[in-house]
Amino acid sequence: MSGSTEAHYRSTINRAYYGAFGYIRNRLAIFVDHGSVHQAVISSLRRALSVQKRQAAARLEKLFEKRKEADYEHRREVKAHNCHFWIKEAEDIIKLFDQAEKANI
């Protein structure tokens, strides 16, 4: 993580979310004309037979909420240790998804 200002921290959380979200959206080939593509990806994972994909859905949704907080709730302070947690969380979400894909479920 480069930078040590709160703006850097907020941007880091944003990038962590979009990294995990974009990876999964592209792998699932989800594109929507109307509504939220974010909710479409989360809903698709939620409906999956795979426990790992359903877990990824819950965790991605939490990261989505944290991303919105970082982007829009400027009264809430964001610290470096929060960023490290959410970066790791994004990596773990991708791993969960990949495990399910590898198992073909």
How do the strands and helices of this protein lay out in sequence?
Layout (H helix, E strand, L loop, with lengths): L5 H23 L8 H10 L4 H22 L7 H23 L3
Helix pairs in contact: 1-3, 1-4, 2-3, 3-4
Architecture per CATH nomenclature, i.e. the level-2 architecture: Up-down Bundle
Please work out how many helical segments DSSP would assign. Answer: 4
Strand content: under 5%
Structural class: mainly alpha
Reading off the top of the CATH hierarchy, the class is best stated as Mainly Alpha
- Give the overall shape: globular
Mean pLDDT: 94
Q: Classify the fold: give the CATH topology.
A: Four Helix Bundle (Hemerythrin (Met), subunit A)
Largest sheet: none
DSSP strand tally: 0
Distance between the termini: 34 Å
Overall number of structural domains: 1
Output the helix-strand order. HHHH
User: From the alpha-carbon coordinates, what is the Rg to the nearest angstrom?
Assistant: 14 Å
Roughly how much helix do the residues carry, as a percent range?
A: over 70%
Regions with little confidence, pLDDT below 50 for 5+ residues: none
Plain-language structure description:
- This is HEPN domain-containing protein.
- The mean pLDDT is 94.
- It contains 4 helices and no strands.
- It has helices at residues 6-28, 37-46, 51-72, 80-102.
- It is an all-alpha fold.
- The N and C termini lie far apart (34 Å).
- Helix 1 (6-28) packs antiparallel against helix 3 (51-72) and helix 2 (37-46) packs antiparallel against helix 3 (51-72).
- It has one domain: Four Helix Bundle (Hemerythrin (Met), subunit A) (Up-down Bundle), CATH 1.20.120.
- Helix content is 74%, strand content 0%.
